[in-house]
Amino acid sequence: MSTTVRHEVDEVLVGFTRALCAAGVPVTQDRAQTFVEAVSIVGVDDQRATYTAGRATLCGSPDDLARYDQVFTAWFNARDGLPRARPAAPSVPSFSDLPADESSGSGEAAEEAVHARASAAEVLRHRDVATLSAAEKHRLDAMFATLRPRAPVRRTARHRGWHRGQVDASRTLRASLRRLGEPAVIEWRRRAVRPRRIVLLVDVSGSMNGYADALLRLAHRISQGPGVVETFTVGTRLTHLTRALHNRDAERALVAAGEAVPDWSGGTRLGETLQVFLDRWGRRGMARGAVVVVFSDGWERGDAALLGAQMARLRRVAHHVVWVNPHRGKEGYEPVQQGVLAVLPHVDDFVAGHSLATFAEVLEVVARA
Fold it and tell me: For residues 65 and 86, what is the distance between their CA atoms, to the nearest angstrom?
């Protein structure tokens, strides 16, 4: 194996260990290095050996095995020249054992199967999460690791050195003095930036029952990204979930969230819960200058006028307000609900949020806010 190919293979293997970390498997640097060395010994072309080497070196407990299998399948399935998983029994995954010197016809058939499987994954990304079966939701859960949240940024009063921008007179003068008054290279500066706080308000009422689990997984994924993220659930009451979602293991974080939320699949009192949020938390400055994302279909059982008034309060203190409606991207949808009509004048972005593909678009909207 040439040095270039070896380097490319190592990059893919290291990327796999990072994907495992994102999925909640505590992969240390030593384990990752041991995994790469083990694969170099058994050979990356040996599919079963690569899979076994990863389980032996990267998994530290039985709880890691299921997530390892999911990420291994998602990571290596669509990469040419690397181990690919084949459909298997739920308990023990198996892999294709085609030798490297198969006939061209068999190779073409295998290539078609890989493309078909990649297409199936792409179709799943665009499926409405409320219509998925239990098995499809299980596959989709592993695909959340592919989302890459980025924090929105704000400019600060401080400056930092840069290769263009404003002339940094102080640094330029000091450099000249160090040269005993001789002209020095002109130094430049620009305003420094810091991540903006993100506040997530997730509707867990009965009308959002089909989307609440996926939206909390999205909130957990955002919480594991850069910046400060605060998460609340809204329904008949307000629940602060930031601490529960700090757990890197998505499954454990969702279990903790489920235990903390007392009004799961209950009624919808968005106006009242928003008022509680603004009175208790907005007054402390949590929403001030933040990017606030509300995940709700807008079915308000309370006073729609109160909801509109609270959204107007929220818009005055927040930097950017995004409303994510799972029905927004569906064909024939019209924003006719009283709750939606009350909030539309006070939001900056009204976007869809019913599939993994739309979740990725939501992350881009938040990052650009």
Answer: 17
Question: Does the predicted TM-score (pTM) go above 0.70?
Answer: no
Q: Is residue 144 part of a domain?
A: no
Residues 348 and 203 in one domain: yes
CATH of the domain at 363: 3.40.50.410
Determine the pLDDT at residue 5. Answer: 58
Residues 81 and 190 both lie in one domain: no
Rounded to whole angstroms, the Cα distance separating 97 from 47 reads 7
- How many independent structural domains does the chain possess? 3
Residue 76: name the closest of 1, 19, 144 by CA: 19
- Which residue, 76, 34, 42, is CA-closest to 58? 34
> Phi and psi at residue 230, in whole multiples of 5°?
-115, 135
* Contact criterion met (CB below 8 Å) for 351 and 358: yes
pLDDT digits 0-9 by tens, 210-261: 999 999 999 999 999 888 999 999 988 999 999 999 988 989 999 999 899 9
Residues 206 and 160 in one domain: no
189 bridge partner residues: 161, 166
**Cα angle for residues 313, 150, 75 (degrees, 5° grid):** 135
Are residues 106 and 175 both part of a single domain? no
The verdict on residue 137 lying in a domain is no
Cβ atoms of 356 and 329 closer than 8 Å: no
Distances (CA, A) of 172 to 158, 159, 177, 180, 222: 17, 14, 9, 13, 41
Q: Which range marks the domain in which residue 173 is found?
A: 154-194
